[in-house]
């Protein structure tokens, strides 16, 4: 992490955090008061970032830099998986936040600060650094997948995979597009889901972050340095398909890469994973097909999640990212005969035309 200039109490900004629950606000300030041995400046609390869940993150000054506060109401969020995974990742040499204090009963947590520059912002500011940034992310992913924690995280099993895909018809097709599928179209979805389930469950299994992409990776040092990237939002980690996090990174919802570049990074990952002894397919063509199909499962899910965030939670900002996620899903469905009918269904629902890309 870059060094942070000390901030004195006198020069600290006034808190700009709003609270809907006065009792929770009082509990928060009482907790901060109990941590004064850490040199916190309570009046400096301000928003750091929002979350797609009920969590929110605040930034607070100290005499020696800044820290992050997680506000996660226990009635909505269980912080224990976050705590467990943060410690596991740090033990493996990954740059995850350090837990400095935790009020488990109230859902308040004090964390080290990995900075405010996400990979997405870094790519916007310095697109020429993309290759170096992604090589760092690929190397970190290999280390993450090397953690043998099968018994310590939930399984990415058939029920969870299917429940995720069902978000696509429930929220994207029915709620967002206002359409009702015919029996024939419903059968198309069910066949497509079965193909995707069979492939995902047949893949070698490792630790899966589940949201390994440019908004959850932080620039914590110069590209190529050991401190890069910082890894966030790992609390939903599971034990599942080895291609899941890679396709999350290469085909995320917020930045689009030429497919030739995706393949280049995928090959680099595949070679690094084999060298590290991870259970990737020995044939890259088979590995790439696994990655494509895994991505299709994820993108159908994300289409549903983004629509749910809008319609249920009032988070409109995710709607602008729907077109890219749709393109990711449609491209894969269009190039494999198993999903030809799904591609046509996607076109009907969104009123778009086919685009094709590389296949093996």
Topology:
Blueprint: H1 22-34, E1 40-50, E2 56-62, E3 65-71, H2 80-91, E4 99-103, E5 108-112, H3 119-125, H4 130-145, H5 158-165, H6 167-176, H7 183-202, E6 205-208, E7 217-218, E8 230-231, E9 238-241, H8 244-250, H9 259-275, H10 284-311, H11 322-335, H12 340-350
Antiparallel strand pairs: 1-2, 2-3, 3-5, 4-5, 6-9, 7-8
Helix pairs in contact: 4-9, 6-10, 7-10, 8-10, 10-11, 11-12
Can you walk through the features of this model?
- This protein is of the alpha+beta class and 360 residues long.
- It folds into 2 domains: 9-112, 2-Layer Sandwich (Phosphorylase Kinase, domain 1); 119-350, Aminoglycoside 3'-phosphotransferase, Chain: A, domain 2 (Alpha-Beta Complex), CATH 3.90.1200.10.
- It has 12 helices and 9 strands.
- The strands form 3 sheets. Strands 1-2-3-5-4 form a 5-stranded antiparallel sheet, sandwiched between helices.
- The two termini are 41 Å apart.
Task: Supply the key terms.
Phosphorylase Kinase, domain 1; 360 residues; 2 domains; alpha+beta; Aminoglycoside 3'-phosphotransferase, Chain: A, domain 2; 9 strands; five-stranded antiparallel beta sheet; 12 helices; two-stranded antiparallel ribbon
């Amino acid at each position: 992490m870059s060094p942070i200039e000390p901030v004195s109490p006198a020069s600290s900004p006034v808190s700009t955090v709003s609270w809907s629950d006065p009792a929770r606000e009082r509990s928060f300030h009482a907790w901060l008061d109990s941590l004064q041995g850490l040199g916190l400046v309570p009046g400096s609390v301000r928003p750091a970032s929002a979350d797609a869940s009920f969590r929110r993150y605040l930034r607070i000054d100290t005499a020696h830099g800044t820290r992050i506060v997680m506000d996660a109401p226990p009635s909505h969020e269980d912080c224990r998986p976050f705590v467990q995974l943060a410690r596991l990742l740090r033990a493996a040499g990954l740059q995850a936040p350090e837990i400095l204090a935790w009020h488990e009963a109230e859902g308040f947590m004090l964390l080290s600060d990995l900075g405010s520059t996400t990979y997405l912002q870094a790519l916007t500011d310095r697109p020429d650094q993309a290759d170096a940034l992604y090589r760092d992310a690929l190397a970190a992913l290999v280390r993450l997948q090397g953690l043998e924690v099968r018994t310590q995280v939930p399984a990415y099993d058939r029920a969870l995979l299917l429940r995720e895909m069902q978000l696509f018809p429930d929220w994207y097709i029915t709620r967002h597009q206002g359409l009702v599928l015919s029996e024939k179209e419903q059968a198309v979805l069910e066949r497509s889901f079965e193909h995707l389930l069979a492939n995902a469950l047949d893949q070698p299994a490792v630790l899966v972050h589940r949201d390994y992409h440019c908004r959850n990776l932080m620039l914590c040092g110069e590209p190529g340095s050991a401190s890069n990237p910082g890894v966030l939002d790992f609390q939903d980690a599971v034990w599942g398909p080895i291609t899941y996090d890679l396709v999350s990174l290469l085909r995320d919802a917020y930045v689009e890469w030429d497919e030739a570049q995706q393949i280049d990074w995928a090959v680099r990952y595949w070679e690094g994973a084999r060298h590290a002894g991870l259970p990737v397919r020995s044939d890259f063509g088979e590995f790439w097909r696994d990655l494509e199909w895994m991505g299709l499962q994820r993108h159908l899910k994300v289409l549903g999640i983004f629509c749910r965030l809008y319609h249920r939670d009032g988070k409109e900002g995710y709607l602008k990212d729907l077109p890219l996620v749709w393109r990711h899903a449609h491209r894969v469905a269009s190039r494999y005969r198993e999903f030809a009918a799904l591609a046509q269904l996607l076109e009907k629902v969104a009123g778009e035309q086919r685009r094709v890309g590389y296949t093996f």
